[in-house]
Design brief:
Blueprint: H1 3-20, E1 22-27, H2 33-45, E2 49-53, H3 55-63, E3 80-85, H4 90-96, E4 104-110, E5 113-116, H5 121-125, H6 130-154, H7 159-170
Antiparallel strand pairs: 1-3, 1-4, 2-3, 4-5
Length: 171
């Protein structure tokens, strides 16, 4: 491979890492062609981009970025496929469907954290996305407001009913 071609691939990998924000390093060595094809279809349906990479090129792409990805560098051995995604836990949920540990998780970068080794798969599957956390916070904040509104409505719309309801709540 020519040096210019390598430079282009490194740039494309760096752009993809920046675009998606979450990625998993996966070992797909033990998978045959049919299994790999099935994995690619599942990834496509789940909105995950699956790419087989050369470790040295991915290493250089990660080095070119502003984030320190050095905790992942030891995982760049053997055959490496990268699962890029918008939702941090989507690849983990997909990998959990495979019972024999094939494909195997090597490492992941999700929600600005590093997860190294296959034993981190369960933790990755339970990660909540930023949108899920925001939805949980909004639901928690809405709950007290709904209680006050329902209490005010149950006391009637008169000032006496409102004051009586608020007085009962304060006690």
């Amino acid at each position: 491979m020519r040096k210019e071609d390598k430079g282009v691939i490194i740039g494309q990998l760096a752009d993809t890492v920046k675009q998606y924000g979450h990625f998993y390093l996966v070992d797909t060595t033990a998978m045959d062609a049919a299994s790999t094809s099935e994995l690619r279809r599942k990834c496509f349906k789940a909105g995950i981009k699956l790419v087989v990479v050369k470790n040295s090129l991915l290493h250089k792409a990660l080095m070119s970025l502003d984030v320190d990805y050095s905790p992942l560098f030891d995982s760049l051995k053997g055959t490496t496929s990268v699962m890029f995604c918008e939702t941090a836990n989507a690849p983990a949920k997909l990998l959990k469907e495979y019972k024999e540990g094939i494909p195997a998780l090597k490492a992941a970068y999700a929600e600005e954290g590093f997860y190294v080794d296959a034993d981190q798969l369960e933790a990755l599957a339970t990660i909540k996305s930023k949108n899920e956390v925001i939805a949980d916070i909004v639901a928690l904040l809405q709950s007290p407001a709904k209680n006050v509104i329902s209490a005010l409505q149950s006391g009637g719309n008169t000032i006496h009913g409102v004051l009586k309801t608020l007085g009962e709540r304060a006690e």
